[in-house]
Amino acid sequence: MERLTASEEMRSWSREVRRGGKRLAFVPTMGALHEGHLFLVHTAREQADRVVVSVFVNPTQFGPGEDFEHYPRDTERDAALLAGAGTDAVWFPATEDLYPEGATTWVVETGLSARLEGEARPGHFRGVTTVVAKLLQVVEPDLLVMGQKDAQQAAVVGRMLRDLKSPVELVVAPTRRESDGLALSSRNAYLSASERRQAVCLWEALQGARDAWRVGEEDPEEVVRRMMARITAEPDTTVDYAAVVDPETFESAERLQAGTLLLLAVRVGKTRLIDNLPLDGG
User: For 106-165, what is each residue's pLDDT tens digit?
Assistant: First the structure.
């Protein structure tokens, strides 16, 4: 596995791959890797000849009082996991490389970004779209692989790619979960043992809402009420939002139907967790 740092190194490696007629997939991460990230690498490997992963804790997508300074970082562990997963190259860009002194350009999506996560975390999606645009400018991949767990983030990036006429194809891989249903997340490491047990309430709330729909419930307000009731039954939980939305617009759905997306953002103790579940008709 190649280990790259400077943008020039990354771009040179990528162009060499493509000159050889190989299809290149790119997986952007913030490190603190887990099996969910490795599943993204596996998904990328299935659809491309070469896979490159970036590891960069992007400062511009963290708001005041969020966990940028404490976000888990372990470069050597991440590199070892990626090598074991068959990654062809890993890119560790420096902050001053992606955000050079005097940089004043931002990439801003103004529709999907205004809702839910965008409302709860002002400026977050501006940081996401800007850094993803910068990464793509350097890597020049055929495929960009992201995870369904961050459903709104993937949708915002997909809208950016469409609006900017990017040739990059977005692939969204299914959410990976622990055996009890908790979505894999780097922030799960913040949970105490008791909080970890409580955190499964997100998955149970989503499952309960889906089960209600499967037996005929179509009212989004009733489904939101059910999700809220399950979450708030646990001590030390705070709901940032529980929503039922159209997956294309992220506007509130008028009724539940196949494809409708259930969304949760919940604080368990001091740890903020997100999860979602598309209604699949199964």
Answer: 999 999 999 999 999 999 999 999 999 999 999 999 999 999 999 999 999 999 999 999
Residue 179 in domain: no
Which pairs from 179-183 meet CB under 8 Å and 24+ separation?
181/207, 183/36, 183/149, 183/273, 183/274, 183/275
Bridge partner residues of 149 (DSSP): none
Where does 48-192 have alpha helices with state H? Answer: 75-84, 95-98, 117-120, 124-139, 151-163
Both 98 and 204 in one domain: the answer is: no
Instruction: Give residue for tokens 């599943």.
Output: 39
Q: At 261, phi and psi to the nearest 5?
A: -110, 125
Residues marked as catalytic: 37
Containing structural domain, residue 12: 2-173
* Co-location of 37 and 71 in the same domain: yes
Threshold 0.90, pTM exceeds: yes
Spatial separation of the C-alpha atoms in residues 132 and 276, rounded to whole Å = 22
- Residue 222, token pair as written in the block: 């009733």
